[in-house]
Amino acid sequence: MRTQVGIVGAGPSGLLLSHLLHLRGIESVVVEIRSRRYCETRIRAGVLEQGTVDLLSASGVGARMAREGLVHHGIVLRFGGRDHRIDLSGLTGGRTITVYGQHEVVKDLIAARLNAGGDLFFEVQDVEVLDVDTPAPRIRFGRAGTAEELRCDFIAGCDGFHGVCRPAVPPGVLTAYEHAFPLAWLGILAQVPPASEELIYSSHDRGFALLSMRSPELSRLYLQCAPDEDMNGWPDKRIWDELRRRFERDDAWTLRDGPVLQKGITAMRSFVVAPMQYERLFLVGDAAHIVPPTGAKGLNLAAADVMVLTRALEAFYATGRTDRLARYSEVCLRRVWKVQRFSWWMTSMLHRSNDGEFFDRLHRAELDYITGSRAASTALAENYVGLPFDDD
Ligand code: FAD
Ligand code: PHB
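That is the input. Now the predicted structure with P-hydroxybenzoic acid docked in place:
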């Protein structure tokens, strides 16, 4: 088999890249180790920046999102028993965020690729990327018991943090920068209408909690926990009791419970690899960087990488220009580090730390400052709705 761009991974990065390339007349093939059903039901991120929404809409995959997505104009920071609303739209000239599950974006992109006759191979095995330092890189994989080989001009490593593309780069080329937070989130998806119209980020002495949602009937809730927390120690009743305590407010506000449909623990880590390219292999999304989820940025950052790579490949195939491809990593990393900074800052400010009372008091002062100063609220809001694309 032969294609122009071989894409490893059918997460949001790989699917969006394949879709945008198709719209520009560039061929691609996507290989994915998991089943289509698995990709379409994996619950992960939920908040889309305005720029991500605009990109999906402008590329013709925004119709269901426009019907079912929940547009939010603000978020709530809860601390000291009180709510402090950050007016995202008012502080950013009318920008909004949209709550629409990552798996819904994935479903829409898979449908669009298949309707356009795109090649998506699910449930492949033993994926290997070869010859990326030559003009003819290859992806080798097994499909239904047969060994296949895909020859390409370029390979996009969209295979997430645990994929095979980043490790395929020879030793000494990449530098990894990382920070493991001594905390994690226990997340649940529950069949109960969200207790608030807007997301609530609650900073409490017992630890951080977040109220989010997936639809008017489904709540998504998170609790700060230890990275090695044992899920068996958390029967549903204990989760709801702990959530109620961490969301307590001075008045009678309360959280209703309901059946828990899914639960899981997500470790918090910050990770960046540089450069995000080696010869004809480009690392995209979680394959190149991970942010802690507190700023709701992982998926949005992946979409930003995809946009930069799409434009660079478009320039290459239209005119033979390679300068944009050569600048891919540099352009992406500028945004990546700004988003790392924001995600680290939100995480440090909102979570109960192990660093002692001094730091907890500093974080409380920071929350007071952020919610009391228009300049500081604006800094939070402009990062939360998404920094502008700066492409060169
Ligand atoms: P992924 O979504 O990881 O997709 C990579 C794809 O590659 C997967 O489909 C995988 O099966 C496939 N793959 C892996 N190895 C191979 C291989 N060898 N060959 C072929 N295919 C392969 N972000 C938020 O903003 N908010 C959240 O609440 C949030 N929660 C998260 C919870 C978890 C458990 C995780 C892991 C991430 C979460 N994130 C969250 C981050 C966000 O989901 C990611 O940033 C986003 O999924 C990145 O998309 P991606 O396509 O780059 O990578
Ligand atoms: C989610 O809805 O899953 C979500 C929302 C906001 C975050 C992280 C996760 O900061």
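The mean pLDDT is 97.
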